[in-house]
Specification:
Blueprint (H helix, E strand, L loop, with lengths): L17 H8 L6 E9 L5 E7 L1 H6 L5 E8 L4 E8 L3 E5 H4 L8 E9 L12 E5 L4 E5 L3 E2 L9 E6 L9 E8 L5 E11 L5 E11 L4 E5 H4 L2 H7 L4 E9 L2 E2 L3 E6 L4 E6 L1 E2 L7 E2 L9 E7 L4 E6 L7 E9 L8 E9 L5 E5 L3 E7 L3 E2 L3 E7 L9 E4 L1 E2 L7 E7 L5 E8 L10 E8 L4 E8 L3 E8 L7 E8 L4 E8 L6 E5 L2
Antiparallel strand pairs: 1-6, 2-5, 2-7, 3-4, 3-6, 7-8, 9-16, 10-15, 10-19, 11-14, 11-17, 12-13, 12-15, 17-18, 20-27, 21-26, 21-30, 22-25, 22-28, 23-24, 23-26, 28-29, 31-36, 32-35, 32-37, 33-34, 33-36, 37-38
Length: about 500
């Protein structure tokens, strides 16, 4: 039996102000929280949903239930069931469809229903894409709107993901639809890096049944002459279409045909020509900053794609060794047009770098963290953004990690703020757990530093492990990277 519940979310809409968006979240009232992901079940592939019952430990909400809806590309419902939510949850789509494996692509929608206000209409769920040797992960991004929300037609212009076209990899875009039939046009632009110039544009009719979906592979919709324009070149992709009834953030990435593997991240919006500009203040002299960190054997490459509002952004940088307080400015000054050219950086050694600006700058500046090993087929492609001074403080952090043989995890825990002189040291109590076991770790992070916590696979835990922690200060941000040095497999994300 599928249980249903309504939600109330007055005034929820897209805004041009990031500060207003954060303020609006405090007013959200939702008894339904949902997310939708594409699934891929080709040879040696599986799609696995992993999440914990944070509603219970964070908000003391009991009596939750999860509904699962599995649909093929046409939108036909091929499986549905209600599941009890445990402390730790991992759901293999291959196992769910064990008797219906004639479908290798479609969507998995999960909704969480509660008898109290869940707050966020999108749940903190990680979706792992697994092949024989590789692993990729993306958190909840797109969703079908709740019935009470505004279902007017919107234009979704998405971008900001690593796109590679060569003999091994081809970019892909997965598009899903809501409850109304879609009859529109999809535009896909290929643009140069680091300076944005149009290479080519493809337009297709986009016709989807209610709840239907489609996956677009560049090596399938480009002809031979078009492939030559991007083969081995640096470029990025921007795509656009109109739809209603959805929040159009999509799972995108690159497909490895030889390994039958989809390396995934989520798209992020291309911001309009004008938008939200934030300023420094006496309380927060740093307008925006970007923390960057690395520890061997990993390598980190950063990129902010030229899809932001047009603004002349000036950044400086400070750096230190890991666990050491940043004190001195480096000689590096970064001056870039955020709407026309990319911002890029790389850290190979064990370092912590803080890029920062004290000038006016856009509130939204995308950034992708691409961690890799020397033998990785594809980096992590973690999508997030520069931290403007409108971001609220945060004390709870959680997520899940891979716990397989020969895998280990690095947690990058940074503690810095928009007023470095007032940043305080913090203590974090981590708990790693599944439904049978738990381990605790304590971490102290000095002000304006980055600390590393390592977690090695444990045989008595399940294949995926949930983790949570509470911090004594609100200036903490956590990234995690799981990897296997033998195979080069790697995945990661920022915490919830």
């Amino acid at each position: 039996m599928i249980l249903e519940h309504i939600s109330y979310n007055p005034g929820m809409s897209k805004s041009s102000s990031l500060k207003k968006d954060f303020s609006a979240r405090a007013l959200w009232v939702n008894y339904r929280s949902s997310a939708i992901f594409p699934f891929f079940l080709g040879k040696n592939e599986d799609t696995i949903l992993v999440f914990q019952n944070y509603w219970q430990w964070k908000s003391e909400i009991e009596n939750l239930i999860a509904n699962i809806f599995v649909r093929d590309l046409s939108g036909k419902l091929i499986h549905s069931e209600s599941l009890q939510i445990y402390t730790h949850n991992q759901i293999s789509i291959k196992n769910i469809l064990s008797n219906e494996l004639n479908t290798d692509k479609g969507t998995i929608e999960i909704e969480v229903i509660g008898n109290k206000n869940l707050g966020y209409p999108f749940p903190a769920i990680l979706c792992y894409y697994k092949s024989k040797e590789h692993m990729s992960v993306v958190h909840s991004a797109g969703r079908i709107l709740n019935s009470n929300e505004n279902h007017q037609t919107s234009t979704w212009r998405e971008s900001n993901f690593l796109a590679i076209y060569d003999d091994n990899l081809s970019p892909f875009i997965s598009i899903f639809n809501g409850q109304d039939k879609m009859d529109t046009e999809l535009s896909i632009k290929f643009l140069t890096l680091p300076v944005k110039e149009l290479i080519l544009e493809k337009k297709f009719p986009l016709k989807l049944n209610p709840f239907g979906s489609e996956v677009f592979y560049a090596n399938e919709f480009l002809n031979d002459s078009e492939k030559k324009l991007i083969n081995g070149k640096r470029f990025f992709i921007e795509f656009e279409h109109k739809n209603k009834g959805i929040f159009g953030r999509y799972v995108v990435g690159n497909y490895l045909e030889k390994g039958n593997m989809h390396f995934c991240t989520h798209s992020f919006m291309s911001v309009a020509e004008s938008g939200d500009i934030i300023k420094s203040s006496e309380e927060n002299p740093v307008t925006s900053f970007l923390p960057a960190f690395n520890k061997e054997p990993l390598n980190l490459k950063l990129i902010s794609y030229p899809t932001n509002i047009k603004s002349n952004v000036i950044f400086k940088s400070k750096e230190s060794n890991l666990d050491e307080t940043i004190k001195q400015d480096t000689d590096n000054i970064f001056n870039f047009n955020s709407g026309e050219e990319a911002f890029e950086g790389e850290i190979k050694e064990n370092k912590f770098v803080k890029y920062y600006s004290t000038d006016d700058c856009p509130a939204r500046l995308n950034i992708s963290y691409n961690f890799s090993l020397p033998n990785s087929q594809h980096p992590t492609d973690i999508a997030t953004g520069f931290k403007g001074n409108v971001y609220p403080k945060k004390s709870n952090h959680w997520g899940s990690i891979v716990n397989l043989n020969d895998w280990k995890t690095m947690f990058f825990i940074r503690n810095c703020s928009h007023n470095p002189k007032k940043t305080e040291s913090g203590d974090l109590d981590f708990t790693f757990f599944d439904n049978s076991n738990s381990v605790e770790e304590h971490v102290h992070v000095k002000s304006e530093t980055c600390t590393i916590l390592e977690f090695k696979a444990k045989n008595n835990f399940s294949d995926f492990v949930s983790w949570k922690c509470n911090s004594t200060v609100g200036t903490i941000e956590i990234f995690w990277v799981c990897f296997n040095e033998k195979t080069g497999a790697i995945c990661g994300d920022h915490s919830f």
